[in-house]
Design goal:
Number of strands: 6
Number of helices: 10
Helix content: 40-55%
Shape: globular
Structural class: alpha/beta
Distance between the termini: 21 Å
Length: 225
C-alpha cells in the first residue's frame, strides 16, 4: 500500500502496487508491477485474463474467487505465510519457554518440509515430482494430521491457533505443489521482488499523480525483470 496525492479521492486514501512474477524455475524471470486504487478482485481478474496455469499466492480470498470462475487457473498456497504465524507466536513467548510449545513443533515440521523439498530443487522436473510424492508428501500429510489433532486444544485467540486455522483453511491450496514440479512452496520470490519498491517507499513516502504511479510500475517492472 502507498498514497497517490492527486487521484481524485480524499486525502490519506490507500493505493496499491500489485506484483506478478514468473516462478523460480524459469531461466529468465519476468516481474510485473501493476498500480491500482484498490485490492478488489477486478484487478487480478483483468491482469490474469490471458494467463492459464498456477498462481502461488497468500490466503487473500480474491484469488480463490477468481479460481472458482475459471477452469484454466489454479491457486497454490504459501507455506511462508503459515510459518510466519507460528514465528509470531514464539516471539510473543518468554525466551527459554519456547521449546516444547505447539508453535515450536509446528515450525520444526515446516522446516522439515522445506529441507526435504530444497534438496530436490536441482532435479529434472519429472524426478522432482516423483521425489516430492515419495519424500515430501508424507511430511506434509503428517503436518496436517497434527493440525487437525490440535485444532481444538487451544484458544482461538492464541497466535498458534491462528497458524493452525490458517493452515486448515488453506490445506487444499498448500498441497498443490505436490502435484506440480514447477510450483514452489511459497511466494517468497514475489515478496523479495517487491522489497525494492517497499524500501523506496520509505524514502519517497507517497506518489504525486496517477501518471507517476503508472510510470513507477513500468520502471520497476523493467528494472526487476
Amino acid at each position: 500500500p502507498y498514497q497517490v496525492i492527486m487521484d481524485s479521492r480524499k486525502a490519506g486514501s490507500k493505493s496499491y502496487m500489485w506484483i506478478y512474477r514468473t516462478g523460480m524455475h524459469y531461466e529468465h524471470p519476468i516481474v510485473l508491477y501493476d498500480y491500482q486504487k484498490t485490492r478488489n478482485a477486478s484487478h487480478p481478474r483483468e491482469f490474469l485474463k490471458d494467463f492459464s496455469g498456477v498462481c502461488v499466492t497468500d490466503g487473500y480470498q480474491v484469488y480463490h474467487t477468481i479460481e472458482k470462475e475459471r477452469e484454466d487457473l489454479k491457486i497454490a498456497g504459501c507455506f511462508a505465510h503459515v510459518r510466519r504465524r507460528y514465528d509470531e507466536a514464539l516471539t510473543a513467548m518468554p525466551k527459554g519457554s519456547q521449546k516444547g510449545r505447539l508453535a515450536y513443533k509446528a515450525l520444526a515440521m515446516i522446516q522439515a518440509i522445506y529441507k526435504a523439498d530444497g534438496e530436490l530443487k536441482d532435479l529434472p522436473p519429472d524426478e522432482r515430482l516423483m521425489k516430492r510424492q515419495l519424500i515430501v508428501k508424507p511430511l506434509v500429510e503428517a503436518y496436517f494430521e497434527w493440525c487437525h489433532a490440535n485444532e481444538r486444544r487451544i484458544s482461538e485467540k492464541n497466535k498458534t491457533a491462528k497458524g493452525i486455522s490458517y493452515s486448515l483453511n488453506q490445506e487444499k491450496y498448500l498441497k498443490v505443489f505436490l502435484e506440480d514440479p514447477y510450483v514452489p512452496l511459497d511466494n517468497n520470490a514475489a515478496e523479495r521482488a517487491i522489497r525494492g519498491f517497499c524500501i523506496g517507499k520509505k524514502n519517497f513516502v507517497m506518489i504525486d499523480t496517477v501518471s507517476g504511479a503508472k510510470a513507477s510500475a513500468i520502471i520497476y517492472s523493467l528494472v526487476e525483470t
